[in-house]
Amino acid sequence: MKDGRFIRDGKKESVLTAGEIGRLFDIPVTVHEEGGWYYLTGY
After folding, report:
1. Residue range 16-40, pLDDT digits in tens
2. Which domain holds residue 8?
3. Is residue 7 part of a domain?
4. Which of 3, 8, 14, 42 could be cross-linked to 29 through a Cys-Cys bond (beta carbons 3.0 to 4.6 Å apart)?
């Protein structure tokens, strides 16, 4: 959600990407998946 609205819906593999998360928070991020858990880094 951003500004009270859903911006994306779908499987976590397609939603939890660097591009999608970066757009959500307006920052560049890196996504790393390990054992089904997703880790984000960036500023």
Report:
1. 999 999 999 999 999 999 999 999 9
2. 1-27
3. yes
4. 42
